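Q: Given only this backbone (465 positions), what sequence would you predict?
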């Protein structure tokens, strides 16, 4: 195993090992502070982070606003308070070692307002901001205002080129590194484009090399690249370390830090991770963001798959092969299906999936009445957690809508991620994970259900294993 040399990240020499930021309450001040205390870079989630009262008890995020916009304002206030709380906990836990970063999603609701609020309220505590899930053009300008480094997450050289030419070239001194996130192997939301085959993973080396060549063209030879997605042990990446073609490089770990003593996820979630098998994490496109994402195949994901399979195209008038009349809704309004699709629909109704819901793509999906009620309630209760939501049709524009019909094939992402983060329910909620998560069950380090501290994990990674 090659020796792992320190890198200068966010103004300090640290181990080139970065804790992946993840989402709601899945990396927090305690876990990120412990990672920094082990001389790496800890990253807490700035996505609706938990906050606490004066006694240290977690504050429930209860919404009182009558409108989506009122609840959206409440959500941003929760997020700012929580981000400041987690930053301070991380700072205290790190005890002056390592670096502390915050992770946000550019497509989360109120991203810019929240980022300003947290960076203002936690001045001198946060050293860098990682940001993906979209094209974060303004992240450089905002972080530079607070003397903080920015770390854009991209999945191609083309994406970074667009970001650099449009915005980042004005703030070169605050570019801490570029995070390359493998769109096939990373957990959570992924940067796959319509031109890439989700079933045909590409070798990351040529893609990262292309990113480095693009960066060199902009004079960014010494700006590190952080490899993220699919990184389990460094022994498998030896050819990347000290590779002159790639230049300075670090490694971001998203999945392995989930299974540590400091990790805030539930014991049930940790136990689930230890039991996964290869193929149990699947790429899917059910997220209300519209992005691909990687999650554990459980009953929650299966229900979404089944929901979309019970789907037929319809027309409001008989046309072409759509000649078979079919009654929809309590008023029995007619739509027209093909003969084959009417047979499918009648079969689903006979199985108890008696409610047909319209989608924005002129199709019907068939669900039980109870599921239909849940979908409608979740759409009504929307608090604007995304900049634009396909599930509820919320958008943070003047109209407060995407202009499209709400899509019942998706789900309320805020609701399920809060639930999986704060309860023991890993079966009926969305559980994001990287595609290497099955290796917990086969890696001898975790034999007998061993769960390490963050320091023990970092020490293990440094050995190459």
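A: Predicted residues:
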């Amino acid at each position: 195993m090659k020796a792992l040399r320190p890198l200068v990240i966010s103004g300090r020499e640290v181990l080139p090992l970065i804790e992946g930021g993840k989402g709601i309450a899945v990396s927090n001040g305690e876990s990120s502070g412990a990672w920094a205390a082990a001389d790496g870079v800890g990253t807490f989630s700035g996505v609706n982070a938990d906050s606490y009262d004066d006694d240290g008890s977690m504050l429930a995020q209860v919404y009182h606003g009558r409108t989506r916009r009122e609840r959206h304002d409440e959500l941003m206030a929760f997020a700012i308070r929580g981000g400041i709380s987690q930053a301070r906990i991380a700072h205290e836990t790190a005890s002056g070692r390592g670096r502390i970063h915050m992770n946000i999603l550019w497509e989360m609701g109120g991203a810019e307002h929240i980022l300003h609020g947290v960076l203002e309220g936690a001045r001198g505590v946060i050293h860098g901001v990682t940001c993906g899930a979209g094209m974060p053009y303004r992240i450089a300008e905002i972080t530079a205002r607070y003397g903080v480094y920015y770390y854009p997450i991209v999945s191609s050289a083309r994406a970074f080129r667009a970001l650099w030419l449009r915005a980042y070239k004005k703030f070169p001194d605050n570019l801490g590194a570029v995070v390359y996130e493998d769109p096939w192997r990373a957990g959570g939301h992924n940067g796959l484009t319509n031109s890439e085959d989700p079933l045909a993973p590409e070798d990351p080396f040529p893609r990262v090399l292309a990113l480095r060549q693009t960066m060199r063209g902009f004079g960014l030879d010494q700006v590190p690249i952080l490899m993220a997605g699919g990184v389990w042990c460094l022994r498998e990446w030896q050819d990347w370390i000290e590779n002159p073609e790639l230049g300075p490089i670090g490694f971001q770990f998203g999945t392995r830090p989930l299974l540590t003593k400091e990790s805030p996820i539930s014991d049930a979630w940790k136990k689930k991770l230890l039991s996964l098998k290869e193929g149990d994490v699947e790429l899917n496109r059910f997220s209300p963001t519209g992005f691909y994402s990687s999650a554990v195949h459980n009953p929650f994901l299966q229900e979404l798959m089944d929901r979309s399979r019970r789907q037929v195209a319809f027309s409001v008038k008989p046309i072409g092969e759509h000649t078979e009349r079919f009654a929809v809704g309590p008023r029995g309004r007619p739509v027209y299906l093909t003969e084959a699709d009417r047979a499918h629909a009648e079969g689903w109704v006979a199985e108890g999936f008696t409610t047909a819901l319209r989608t924005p793509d002129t199709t019907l999906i068939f669900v039980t009445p109870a599921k239909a009620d849940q979908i409608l309630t979740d759409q009504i209760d929307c608090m604007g957690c995304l900049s634009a939501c396909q599930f509820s049709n919320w958008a943070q524009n003047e109209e407060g809508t995407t202009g499209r019909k709400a899509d019942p094939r998706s789900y309320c992402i805020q609701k399920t991620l809060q639930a999986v983060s704060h309860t023991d329910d890993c079966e009926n909620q969305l559980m994001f994970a990287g595609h290497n998560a099955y290796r917990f069950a086969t890696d001898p380090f975790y034999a007998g259900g061993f769960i390490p501290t963050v320091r023990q994990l970092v020490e293990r990674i440094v050995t190459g294993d």
